[in-house]
Amino acid sequence: MGYVGLPTALALHESGARTTGLDVSAERLGTIASGEPDLVEADRERLSRARGDTGFTLTTDQSSITEADAVIICVPTPLDEHLGPELSPLRAACRAVVEQARLGQVLILTSTSFVGTTRQLLAEPLAERGFTVGEDVFVAFSPERIDPGHPEHTQRATPRVVGGSTWRCAEKARAVLELLTPSLHVVSSAEAAELTKLYENSFRAVNIALANEFAGICGTLSLDPVEVTKAAATKPYGFMPFYPGPGVGGHCIPCDPQYLLWQLRAARVTAPLVDKAMTLIADRPRHVVTRALETLSAAGRGLAGARVVVIGVSYKPGVADLRESSALEIITGLLALGAKVDYHDPMVGHVLLRGGRVLENVPEPHGAEWDLALVHTVHPGYDYDWVRQCPIVLDATYTFTAAPGRALV
């Protein structure tokens, strides 16, 4: 019942389906029951309507799986320290679903993983239990398409891809997913749907790496990369705008292509373009730290002992989500070079850095307190005029016009 599961459950409930939200964390369910989770306004309103409705329940009891006609699995699929799949949560969730499965159920996996995951973790274990997949139970994969912080990208307006273990599985899954969106694209197999998700985010990773590279090219030529990108985007075909930034965060782009690369390495196959893009993306926060050092040096002082404020630490505007946020690596890098670092983010009260260090948000900043302001994430609806008081502003978003004399990453 996280960033994907909760909005999905709320949308299903709003469609009229009796919906149970299952999570292993009683603390998470308590946050949801209190109405306090991080949600866009539309989902917050849905939660307000769902709370207290007998058609919407929250539980940690895995036996509730058996009572459902359809089960949608939405659990995290992070990376381990070697950039390989860390599938413990997904394996545990699928194991529980297989153990509790009954005749007639539709089981839909949405968590991003390598090609073959749906078969390995659901279809094959169900067959070992004696079920005939496609006749007794129906198994499918439909990658999640949730865009936190962008309320215009509603689930209803966003097409979904679905692929089943059999064609009948796909049709059964389609009937469930039509409660979320009328726009469904059915592919030939669960494996095709799994690769679709990996392709989507590998595409984004490659183009973000290119956008960052062009930002460097524009800097060399004393041009504005945002202006150049917007101009290129006027072409009505053959171009899609991507914009440079301080790094990528969330689950999709930093993690999903690594699942593909891990699987290909195991098969002794290379994907050099995707591999290089992911290396460049991983290096981006270190480049931002280097630019902070260069910017201060150009003003006649070093980074050691400098007072730096990082503006915005969530991975994207409009959310309080710190997953894989490049701000955390940037802060760690600045601290390692001797800077005294604070941050201001009206949506994030504190951050936990690698090694256990905790930083608290500066709620009422005054720009003159710092030698350098590093703009990482700018949330809509908040006042950032105080940044004008900062003597040096390094804009890693390339769009922070509130400080016209800013330096760019």
TrEMBL record:
<protein>
    <submittedName>
        <fullName>Nucleotide sugar dehydrogenase</fullName>
    </submittedName>
</protein>
<dbReference type="InterPro" id="IPR028359">
    <property type="entry name" value="UDP_ManNAc/GlcNAc_DH"/>
</dbReference>
<dbReference type="Pfam" id="PF03721">
    <property type="entry name" value="UDPG_MGDP_dh_N"/>
</dbReference>
<dbReference type="GO" id="GO:0000271">
    <property type="term" value="P:polysaccharide biosynthetic process"/>
</dbReference>
<keyword id="KW-0560">Oxidoreductase</keyword>
<dbReference type="InterPro" id="IPR008927">
    <property type="entry name" value="6-PGluconate_DH-like_C_sf"/>
</dbReference>
<dbReference type="GO" id="GO:0051287">
    <property type="term" value="F:NAD binding"/>
</dbReference>
<dbReference type="InterPro" id="IPR017476">
    <property type="entry name" value="UDP-Glc/GDP-Man"/>
</dbReference>
<dbReference type="GO" id="GO:0016628">
    <property type="term" value="F:oxidoreductase activity, acting on the CH-CH group of donors, NAD or NADP as acceptor"/>
</dbReference>
<feature type="domain" description="UDP-glucose/GDP-mannose dehydrogenase C-terminal">
    <location>
        <begin position="309"/>
        <end position="402"/>
    </location>
</feature>
<dbReference type="GO" id="GO:0016616">
    <property type="term" value="F:oxidoreductase activity, acting on the CH-OH group of donors, NAD or NADP as acceptor"/>
</dbReference>
<dbReference type="InterPro" id="IPR036220">
    <property type="entry name" value="UDP-Glc/GDP-Man_DH_C_sf"/>
</dbReference>
<dbReference type="Pfam" id="PF00984">
    <property type="entry name" value="UDPG_MGDP_dh"/>
</dbReference>
<dbReference type="InterPro" id="IPR014026">
    <property type="entry name" value="UDP-Glc/GDP-Man_DH_dimer"/>
</dbReference>
<dbReference type="Pfam" id="PF03720">
    <property type="entry name" value="UDPG_MGDP_dh_C"/>
</dbReference>
<dbReference type="InterPro" id="IPR001732">
    <property type="entry name" value="UDP-Glc/GDP-Man_DH_N"/>
</dbReference>
<dbReference type="InterPro" id="IPR014027">
    <property type="entry name" value="UDP-Glc/GDP-Man_DH_C"/>
</dbReference>
<comment type="similarity">
    <text>Belongs to the UDP-glucose/GDP-mannose dehydrogenase family.</text>
</comment>
<dbReference type="InterPro" id="IPR036291">
    <property type="entry name" value="NAD(P)-bd_dom_sf"/>
</dbReference>
<keyword id="KW-0520">NAD</keyword>
